[in-house]
Amino acid sequence: MDEKLNELKSIIYEISDINKASAVLSWDQETYMPKGSINDRANQLATLSKISHQKFVSKEVGKLIAKAKNDVQKEAPDSDNSRLIKVLDRNYQKSVKVPSKLVLKMAKASSLGQQTWARAREKSDFSLFEPYLKKTVELYREYAMIFKPYDHIYDTLLDDFEPGFKTADVKLIFGKLRTQQIKLIKDIKDKPDIDDSFLFLKYDGQKQWDFGVDVITKFGYDWNRGRQDRSTHPLTIDFGMNDVRITTRINTKYLPTGLFGSMHEAGHAMYEQGIPLNLARTPLGGGASLAIHESQSRMWENLVGRSMPFWKYFYPVLQKTFPNQLANIKLFDFYKGINKVKPSLIRVEADEATYNMHIMLRLEIEIALIEGSIEVKDLPEIWNKKMKEYLGITPENDAEGVLQDIHWSMGAIGYFSTYAIGNLVSAQLWECINSDIPSLSNQIREGDFSELLSWLRKNVHLHGAKFEPQELVQRITGSKITPEPYIKYLNNKYSVIYDL
Model pTM? Predict the structure, then answer.
């Protein structure tokens, strides 16, 4: 067994290296690449994607996986080798159905689409991006249809990000969540408005950057194995377990953008940095799913970063950093300001009470695009109509509306629901964490995050991608993913802020 398994692992390691090389090129594309080199980069990324795909779906890999499936039956079902073969077999059975030509087209469309999206967003002109998005949707519909029969055509795309999830699962969870969140938003709407004008003053960009660096350093982000840069859209990307990078963006006229962006991406990165090194260069050497990943980023951004204990420690430092803006703003007023509930146009800057409504809107649009029940050319109008329906506001331009997210341009169709599911998981985990660490609030109040990170390392990060999301959450919390803890968390938090 060892000889054949090692032979299989050797091939998998090479494929991983190719994919990580692609990640380096993608990171450069988002940060420092000259705009004029987009066609060169698109070809490079497409070629690497094709090579990676062809190596993985080879008959040799298929035979080695089949042999390993029999051999690992002698090992414990939860052993690293057993789980590796299970994940490899799942991925192989899915990938082998996809023609290399389609992989090449999808990769090229993604690279070209991202640069076109950035230009269209800058000019706030959806028409520039429309033909690229139309092509992307056609390619991903073609990809999804390969996997007939299915319960729903969107299942295939969702499964790429949330293994084991079905469209019906997400609709059921969101159905329970929507009613409760709408009620909370309506209850808050009747309360006096919170003054957050102090957040919209001029804040020096470098000072924001330095403060954010200090925060995520205390969180536990390992700078020896990572770095932070600037990009149009904040992101986390890894080139290996010892090189996990993040980006953020700074808005000198709105303080929360850069700070909470850094916290969010650091949450993603610390997850990757906490996965055991023995899983490196294998499909197990990453997060269990995008929702589990999002549970980590949203936990550090919101449950920690927007909490009162956190700011009891950090607010005096922030006041000293920006005395002209914050010297006369009391702690509780600042806390209320950063947690103000107000329907907003931009998803990444939405408050916790309204954020999931942004996700539901996008999910509905994605499903309709893949079903073919709506056309790409109509997206600006559909987007604006749904924003009015869901949040009571209408974007003034395409940049604030249909062009605000990078995901569709990069072919991440099936992704958006993971954000909301991640919110639910974060609260579900948070209940367990506080039960296991009764002094957690006091520790955060003292700027000590070591026991929190240690708990996450032991209970979440340790497993990498060995378990599908529902199985992992059930192992940790005793139940599958459910909205109740998140609704409870929101109600408790906003009852204090808005005196509900």
Answer: 0.91
Domain for residue 160, yes or no?
A: no
Confidence band of 1 (pLDDT split at 50, 70, 90): low
Q: Which of 265, 272, 400, 468 is catalytic?
A: 265
What percent of the chain has pLDDT above 90? 87
Per-residue pLDDT, averaged over 141-158, amounts to 95
Q: Could you tell me if 118 and 218 lie in one domain? A: no
Kindly report, residue by residue over 7-18, the tens digit of the pLDDT: 999 999 999 999
Check if 431 is active-site. no
In this structure, the answer to whether residues 105 and 244 fall within a common structural domain is no
CATH number at residue 253: 1.10.1370.30
Contact 457, 274 (CB under 8 A): yes
Domain span at residue 181 reads: 167-498
Q: How many structural domains are present in the chain?
A: 2
